[in-house]
């Protein structure tokens, strides 16, 4: 055990040294957290807490009074923090003077956060508290159905719909549509259709119900079945709306039938149904994917001519089109045009350009764009992941760590993918100690590492004869709660 302790302490020292490097000017600038802002103070405290078990002690001595509004903001900012999120939620409930009466949104944030890391027993415990306090609603169960379906737990998603009444919430058409949508979005349209056929007598299907099934079959793809559902919709007397048309245009474009999609748009217009920016964005994006840049630009101009004001989504589609044909100068001009029309490029806009530059081997330019981005827009998880991966792939682990350090200084909670990319990069570089510390940090936040990432680190530890460290990490992994469905 002494050898293990020495090895692990050495690994921690390496990690501390790693974090101490970087741009001092940036550190001094970003470290000036507004001491009067309780949300920022709490987020900083929670993120810097290395041990989930020590969080309550740190919070008790923070001196911060938590109101329901403050708790809501903290939870929303830390919804990726896994067990730390839950521990803060529980701590706030147990405060003196009756505790913090969490808002419904706070409850929902925690329910989603726990489901994301598959802490299902705790998730249902929170729902039980909501039932007791009389705040559980349809959206509560819609969140759970979506999370179960995303985890490919389809029977549990159906169970959630069926158990609503036990929690004092009546199932309705909105919940029914949410169940169908969750199944379809998780590529199980057959299950959704089966449930629809069994239950549609309980509810009167609306345009949204049919649109969900249309989208599911369209993305299968099974166009004959999609048209069958569409005809059934018309036969039932339910008229398609703008969402229905949007789904059909999207499906037709994704299956290479763009000319047919254009005809649908024209047919809409002739019926007095004005096409939306979404429909135009789908057409522009599809022309871009097919490298038909002239058609993409023409469609964009037609949209403006028809009086449809472009939004960030359709602008992003045009940026994608120019990036596809390597016309990066044009892509930047589109961004300038956006700002000229009062539309701020979002993280998606920048990510499109970053991904395109990296895919074409323009890594130096990608880094320059990233540096420009952080002055004008808040990066998201995809931004940090793609930049860290770029540096790891180019054997520039120091730069990857610099991006990681900047992300942490911004109090951005890394996702499972961001953690994994850097851990894999450290393993490839042979930096096993740093990889171990990062993996422990990941586990402490309640984020379960992918099997491939843990497997790579496991092989390196065995190769170096560090079975003690491996056993420690395995025990840490076992502490993550893995429970089946609970009532």
TrEMBL record:
The PPR repeat ranges on this chain = 137-171, 172-202, 206-240, 241-275, 276-310, 311-345, 346-376, 380-414, 415-449
State the UniProt keywords alphabetically: Repeat, Transit peptide
Keyword Transcription regulation in the entry? The reply is no
Do you know which PROSITE patterns this protein is assigned to? PPR (PS51375)
One of its Pfam families is PPR_2
Presence of the UniProt keyword Repeat in the record: yes
Q: Which InterPro entries match?
A: PPR_rpt (IPR002885), TPR-like_helical_dom_sf (IPR011990)
**Residue ranges the record marks as coiled coil:** none
PANTHER family on file: OS03G0761300 PROTEIN, PENTATRICOPEPTIDE REPEAT-CONTAINING PROTEIN
User: What name does the UniProt record give this protein?
Assistant: Pentatricopeptide repeat-containing protein
Which source organism? Urochloa decumbens
User: What are the leading ranks of the lineage?
Assistant: Eukaryota, Viridiplantae, Streptophyta, Embryophyta, Tracheophyta
């Amino acid at each position: 055990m002494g050898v293990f302790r020495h090895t692990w302490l050495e690994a921690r020292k390496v990690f501390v040294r790693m974090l101490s490097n970087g741009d001092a000017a940036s550190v001094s600038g970003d470290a000036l957290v507004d001491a009067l802002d309780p949300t920022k103070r709490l987020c900083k405290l929670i993120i810097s807490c290395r041990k989930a078990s020590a969080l309550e002690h740190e919070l008790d001595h923070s001196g911060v009074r938590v109101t329901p509004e403050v708790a809501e903001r903290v939870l929303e900012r830390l919804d990726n923090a896994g067990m730390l999120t839950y521990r803060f939620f529980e701590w706030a409930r147990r405060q003196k003077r009756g505790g913090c009466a969490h808002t419904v949104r706070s409850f929902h944030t925690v329910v989603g956060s726990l489901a994301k890391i598959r802490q299902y027993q705790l998730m249902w415990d929170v729902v039980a508290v909501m039932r007791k306090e009389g705040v559980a609603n349809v959206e509560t169960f819609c969140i759970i159905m979506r999370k179960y379906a995303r985890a490919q737990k389809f029977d549990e998603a159906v169970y959630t719909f069926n158990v609503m009444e036990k929690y004092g919430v009546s199932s309705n058409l909105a919940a029914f549509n949410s169940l169908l949508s969750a199944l379809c979005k998780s590529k199980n349209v057959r299950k959704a259709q089966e449930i629809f056929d069994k239950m549609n007598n309980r509810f009167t299907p609306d345009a949204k119900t049919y649109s969900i099934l249309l989208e599911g079959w369209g993305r299968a793809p099974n166009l004959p079945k999609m048209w069958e559902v569409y005809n059934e919709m018309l036969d039932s007397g339910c008229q398609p709306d703008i969402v229905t048309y949007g789904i059909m245009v999207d499906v037709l474009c994704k299956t290479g039938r763009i000319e047919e999609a254009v005809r649908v748009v024209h047919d809409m217009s002739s019926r007095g149904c004005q096409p939306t920016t979404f429909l135009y964005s789908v057409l522009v994006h599809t022309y871009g994917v097919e490298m038909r840049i002239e058609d993409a630009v023409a469609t964009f101009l037609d949209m403006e001519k028809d009086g449809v004001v472009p939004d960030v989504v359709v602008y992003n589609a045009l940026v994608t089109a120019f990036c596809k044909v390597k016309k990066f100068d044009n892509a930047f001009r589109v961004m300038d045009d956006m700002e000229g029309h009062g539309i701020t490029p979002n993280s998606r806009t920048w990510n499109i350009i970053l991904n395109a530059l990296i895919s074409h081997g323009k890594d130096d330019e990608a880094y320059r764009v990233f540096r420009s981005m952080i002055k004008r827009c808040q990066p998201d998880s995809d931004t940090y992941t793609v930049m860290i991966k770029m540096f790891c792939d180019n054997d520039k682990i120091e730069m990857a760590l610099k991006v990681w350090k900047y992300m942490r200084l911004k109090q951005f909670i890394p996702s499972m993918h961001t953690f994994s990319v850097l851990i894999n990069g450290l393993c490839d570089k042979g930096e096993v100690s740093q990889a171990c510390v990062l993996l422990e940090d990941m586990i402490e936040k309640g984020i379960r590492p992918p099997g491939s990432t843990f497997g790579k680190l496991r092989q390196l530890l065995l190769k170096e004869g560090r079975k003690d460290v491996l056993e420690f990490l395995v025990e840490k992994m076992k502490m993550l709660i893995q429970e089946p469905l609970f009532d």
